Fold this sequence. Notes:
The protein has a domain of 72 residues. It has a six-stranded antiparallel beta sheet with strand order 2-1-6-5-4-3, with no helix packed on it. It contains one helix and six strands; from the N terminus they run αββββββ. By secondary structure, it is mostly beta strands.
Amino acid sequence: xxxxxxxxxxxxxxxxxxxxxxxxxxxxxxxxxxxxxxxxxxxxxxxxxxxxxxxxxxxxxxxxxxxxxxxxxxxxxxxxxxxxxxxxxxxxxxxxxxxxxxxxxxxxxxxxxxxxxx
Length: 118
């Protein structure tokens, strides 16, 4: 009786190389100007507003620019230079910051209250 390994295709799909995660860059985003709301943005994000966080890619025309999960701009309309871009309503500058390595994970030690006189 011949045995055909039917599961080989599924195994090969699982064994494919994992896709490399995008490199995150830490940035500070500064709103240079409010080009639409005349200084009274409905969410309080007026000129001078600063947002900090990690990005996986730079601004792309036709897409919102995200910093982490907390902040996004309106749709990018024009990239002025490598660190300045315009959206539907504002102009922003990106400042790239040095990445800080994640803290090392250590095992938690049990707290011994007797050693500290408690």
